[in-house]
Specification:
With 175 residues, the protein is of the alpha+beta class. The chain folds into 2 domains: 78 residues, Beta-grasp domain (Ubiquitin-like (UB roll), Roll), CATH 3.10.20; 89 residues, Orthogonal Bundle (DNA polymerase, domain 1), CATH 1.10.150. Helices cover 31% and strands 15% of the residues. It has 6 helices and 5 strands. A 5-stranded mixed β-sheet has the order 2-1-5-3-4, sandwiched between helices. A hairpin with a 2-residue loop joins strand 1 and strand 2. Helix 3 packs across helix 6. The chain binds FE2/S2 (inorganic) cluster (2 copies). The site of one FE2/S2 (inorganic) cluster has 11 residues, from loops. One FE2/S2 (inorganic) cluster (FES) binds next to loops.
């Protein structure tokens, strides 16, 4: 069954008719030609398709477009507004990618993760209470690479470029 949806993607509103089974990832890539989010596993395991949906990071391969009518979506491409986003710049400066296939998802996830940590949202692993950092202290991503690894653990990299992603994210966290 087809239905009408309105999606605002990287600041531009689109109205389209989609089959109700169409994922947000397929709507973005196949219908709107936005190939920034990548299709890796297509079932929620790799994070290559990560986008911001109404400010939250989601795996767009697991979201149905019809369920997010009126949604505000930001892809990695849309993060660059007035020049590169600081996370994009840091990934370049730290050579934090190899083939680049996972990179848009990694960058979107890092942007969201930094905002989550700044808002005091705990990661999935709590080291202690009441704080989420080691020994119950506050999270300081600039000096806590383990916390970054945990918070980024939904994004896989086949090239294993993790070693340079962590300092890239630490740099932004500390700026
Ligand atoms: Fe969506 Fe892998 S393509 S999580
Ligand atoms: Fe190749 Fe991550 S840079 S998959």
């Amino acid at each position: 069954m087809d239905t009408e949806v309105t999606l605002r993607v990287d600041g531009v509103e689109h109205q389209l008719t989609v089959d109700t089974r169409t994922t947000l990832l397929d709507a973005l890539r196949e219908r709107l030609g936005n190939t920034s989010p990548k299709k890796g596993c297509d079932h929620g395991q790799c994070g290559a398709c990560t986008v911001l949906l109404d400010g939250q990071r989601v795996n767009s391969c697991l979201a149905l477009a019809v369920a997010h009518d009126g949604g505000e979506i930001v892809t990695a491409a849309g993060l660059a507004t007035d020049g590169l986003h600081p996370v994009q710049r840091a990934f370049i400066d730290h050579d934090a990618f190899q083939c680049g296939y996972c990179t848009p998802g990694q960058i979107v996830s890092a942007v969201a993760m930094l905002a989550e940590a700044a808002a005091g949202r705990p990661s999935t692993v709590t080291f202690d209470t009441p704080g989420d950092g080691p020994n119950g202290g506050p999270v300081d991503l600039a000096v806590d690479p383990d916390e970054i690894r945990e918070r980024m653990s939904g994004n896989l990299c086949r090239c294993a470029a993790y070693a340079n992603m962590v300092p890239a994210i630490q740099e932004v966290a500390g700026s």
